[in-house]
Design brief:
The chain is an all-beta fold. 0% of the residues lie in helices and 52% in strands. The protein is built from no helices and ten strands.
Amino acid sequence: QVQLVESGGGLVQAGGSLRLSCVASGSITSMNDMGWYRQAPGKQREWVAIIISGTRTNYRDSVKGRFTISRDNAKNTVYLQMNSLKPEDTAVYYCNDGVGHWGKGTLVTVSS
């Protein structure tokens, strides 16, 4: 049974930084494509960043240059470093393991 647990969210002022963590347990391997998604109030969930086969990364345009996804396979953890945060980054952030499992999310609120 796969379990994903996100943490690291909080309230931050515009221009600030946060680092989100997603700890995975169960049938997760270093080859899983791990991703971060977010859902703002009243909006659909959207993809934010993905790390493919542990090395290649890709980002949605609005976060390129500000967010960095990484993973520590020894700790079964995926990170999302978020810098230069903007109010429009406010959302619940979710971790996904590429095969349909989701965490419960962590709330990020960016004040202007």
